[in-house]
Write a structure and sequence with these properties.
The chain has about 150 residues and is of the alpha+beta class. The chain is built from four helices and seven strands. The chain binds coenzyme A.
């Protein structure tokens, strides 16, 4: 099947929100937060969509804070997981960040989110800290990861 990765548009918002709703461990955003992706904002954000023919398979959102980018969310549709799509989508974002002069990519993830942590570690992100009880419902520590380009 032919996979494509492209920048998200406002037309993708319903599919992004539906996918996120079914991804329990994804970051959960309000409709307003998604809509803000397409408003001129500071800091800027980058959102990429992964599609297989006409079918929406996942997305990643990153915030651009000067030379450091922060991954705010990544989700692959349930039935499409464990096929390498998340790794490919993350790889595309890293290429884009590097091409745009980023020096590092940061993120935080629930300690118990082993799938996401393994994905980040596969791309050589290193643990850089911990925020105790950062998440709610349920309370859990955040593990911070960083990937430096220089
Ligand atoms: C995290 C997520 C994006 C991974 O996407 P994916 O397409 O399934 O990942 P891939 O198939 O590309 O896997 C890449 C690597 O990640 C790791 N991985 C992915 N899913 C895993 C799982 N369930 N258990 C353990 N490791 C896993 C593996 O190291 C895997 O490499 P391998 O297949 O060679 O072993 C997906 O599980 C998801 O959408 N989860 C819900 C949303 C979420 O939690 N997002 C993170 C918020 S911070």
């Amino acid at each position: 099947m032919k996979l494509s990765i492209r920048p998200a548009t406002t037309a993708d918002l319903p599919a992004m929100m539906a996918l996120e709703k079914h991804a329990a461990t994804a970051a959960h955003w309000s409709a307003e937060q998604y809509e803000a992706l397409f408003r001129a904002s500071d800091p800027a954000r980058v959102a990429l969509i992964m599609q297989e023919v006409a079918s929406f398979q996942g997305f990643v959102i990153a915030r651009v804070v000067g030379e450091e980018w922060e991954i705010e969310n990544i989700a692959i549709a349930g039935p499409a997981r464990r096929r390498g799509l998340g790794a490919r989508l993350l790889g595309e974002l890293l290429d884009l960040a590097r091409a745009q002069g980023a020096t590092a990519i940061l993120l935080e993830v629930r300690e118990s989110n082993h799938a996401a942590r393994a994905l980040y570690e596969k791309w050589a992100f290193l643990e850089s800290g911990r925020r105790p009880r950062y998440y709610e419902d349920p309370h859990e520590d955040a593990i911070l990861y960083r990937l430096g380009f220089v």
